[in-house]
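Hi L., both proteins are below.
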Amino acid sequence: MHDVNPEYIRAVFTDAPQHRTLSLPHYQRSAVLVPLIWRGDQFAFLFTKRTDSVETHKGQVSFPGGVVDASDTDDMQTALREAQEEIGLPPSSVEVVGVLDDLATPTGFVIRPVVGIIGKVPPLTTNTDEVSEVFEVPLAFFADQTSGRTEAREVRGIHYEMWFYEHGNHLIWGATATIVRMLLKKLQLVQ
């Protein structure tokens, strides 16, 4: 396993900055922030758990994010704006290092994952209409091949390999787990 530190992650995105962009009719363009908190010797993902009152993906674990607004200049601005609106994370506390491939979901979204490093997490204020909980999971948990499992799923006639991770009382699956796997592959932590 590579020594995963901020310098390594910056170098990976600098050396391989290209990413796949999708433009699909009838899909809503969205962006999420993939927040990586540096704890001095290891990274942890920062996740949110959605409330049961939001319009889509009720009660699911997700990254902060949402649909692109007409006023957003790019996907990075969407991801940072949504993180500030949902959990009170100031954009100035995030070092954006790059983006991952666009991901089309069975629920009709094209997601652009924006990866950011957070050196020091400021006090967070959750938007309780959208977020019921904010929590961290070490990156090493996901890199451990024994942590996750896959299931074959079919949605709207399309076959998917769906990843599932159980950490404490949280189930991380679907698009969120897929984005985690995309980042692990880019960092060469999994096959």
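That was the first. Here is the second:
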Amino acid sequence: IGVTIDGLPAGLPVDLDALGRFLRRRAPGQNAWSTPRKEADLPEFLCGLKDGRTCGAPLTAIIRNTNTRSGDYENLMDIPRPGHADYTAAVKWGGHADMRGGGHFSGRLTAPLCIAGGIAKQILARRGIHVGAHLSEVAGIADDPFPLHPTAELFEKLAAKDFPVLDDGAGERMQQAILAAREALDSVGGIVECAAIGLPAGLGDPMFDGVENRLAAALFGIPAVKGLEFGAGFDVACMRGSENN
């Protein structure tokens, strides 16, 4: 799997060590509450970087699979998984879809997204723009919400945690719920709260090219994402206009 990023200005430094730390946050098989697959997520840059800086050409990186078990997916054409694209892919491409590793619908493809995102975060940080996130809710167990004015230091503190929550007590209860579901051969869902600070006003264009539109299109590219809220989100439906404003 891999990614090609075009349009990067030449001469931008890319801290590969920082990028590696960012990618390790996504990599599975690191603890009892993540998927057990062992995947290092080590990117190999084929072009676009020279001496640690962008060179103006498209930047291409690949991640080689080290835990290849294609046989695990051989029956997907005959027994499609519920909630996955196995059946529709078989119909759409007449049985010719390559479903090894889950095909190009696999959650594994979030790894190259993180390569692009990790590089973007470095570029944005040099311009005073910082993005951070935490687990807002898991299995109905809520973390504290972000403060009204989160800081870059708070984002860094969360990123350094094995389990990124503001309230560590809530995080422990979340982990217990995940492990209990795993023992029952099941799983649980969760909600991520994300914030960006330092953004200039006026980003985006009217109607279909607004920031919310483009974020929604990108986020729904991750198959597990089934809902998206901005601000109070769906709770706005229960508010009066004066309260929401």
